[in-house]
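Q: Can I see a sequence and its folded structure?
A: Here is a first one.
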Amino acid sequence: MAKGPDPAGNEDRVILGPGWFGVVDGATDKSGMRYGGRSSGVIAAEAVAECLAQAPGDREPGLLVSDMTDALAERLERFGADPNAPTRPAAVVVCFSPSQRLLLRVGDCAYHWAGSPNAPQKLIDRINAEARAALLQALIAGGADHGELRASDPGRQMIMPLLREQGNFQNHLDHPLGFGAIDGRPVPDRYVEVTQLEGTGDLVLASDGYPTLLPELAASEQALARALGEDPLRIGTLRGTKGIAPGAASFDDRSYLRLRLRAEGGATGHESPATPGGRP
């Protein structure tokens, strides 16, 4: 589900097998560049998702990351994008192979398994979120109007230079602010997370549009709505690098995929925000 009124602007993608199931989240564009009329997040998500949708279930995770990297590199070359710009198109991904019982993740997508969520946040994102929240809280303390702050978001304007340049930390192996993403360049092993899942149960894969990821879609949606109602500027417990823009439904695109893992290693079923409650 797109954060705004235009579904074409959705920078998330959901992959439903046959070899891999997953969620891809294109990085929010900060450059203003357009590639064939689409944002950098859209073309990155499309390239990675198309590669993942065609991958065989027995593809070794490291090779699959290389495949997705190459697919995006080819897409960037086609559009003439600078592969070394800090605002280069990029995407993060979490995916699962039923045949291997392997969970693969690069970046900050989330998953829920064995009764608990796993939703990492980049250190650079925490730094930006804290700085943005501090400025907006200071303006509110000085009497600023909440509605005007939501419309203009001076906190995001303040951190935008760092948001544009933080791509220099992306796939940077040795920097403490480094983080991983699929951006057309090799992804260091430290940013490739591979987890073997044992047992049966429901596995949820999601983009970071869900600040609270729960085992049921309806509960995750309710938690999101409640949090946004309490903190629409996202400067309190929900603090982040952006709030809810005027006319938007949420602060970010969101995708939710639930798989039921069987004892013999298969996976069935999914839920999506377009069909609350899911279907068999």
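Q: Show me another, different protein.
A: A second, unrelated one:
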Amino acid sequence: MAKDTPPRWDRRMQQRLARGEAAALGELYDRFASLVHSLAHRVLDDDSAADQVTREVFGYIWENPDAYDPKQGNMRSWVAKLTQRQAVHRLRQTEATAYEETGEGSTEELEQKVRRASVAARADYIVTSMPAPLRAALELAYFQRRDYRQTAADLGVTEDEARRRLRLGLQLLSTANTRPLEGTSPPGYGRSL
């Protein structure tokens, strides 16, 4: 997981990219390449397609550094949104081509597959980007089947704090399925890839 990026870093990075500093792109790549690749892979379930999406996303960022607006959110979220949009676009293309060639499936099945992949990628991103205390509480509750009392004891916090962390983590995670299907650009985020 990439480190949290403070807004100052985001603005400086955008300025460096706008000046054409190749070192800035390298630094951005080092920080976010694993995020981009894992989100793309989650949607596409294909390493080579995820590699291609990773190249496309960083190519887009290099060519369009001004598409990022710090007022709209941090750079990490913007990069994740670009990745999700591009991966969903590629999935649609791949599945539509397969449908045309084989005649198997339907447009409804295609849209369901795209929606499931998009929601799963968003949920992964939410979990990896939430604060460590929330993530730790959710991991204990989900993977180790701990209740809030056991979670509190394992984390060394009060039971009320454990309940609060679990509730907040689940609330964040529940938003994965409430976003519209990808394909439209969020306001202020420039043209599509």
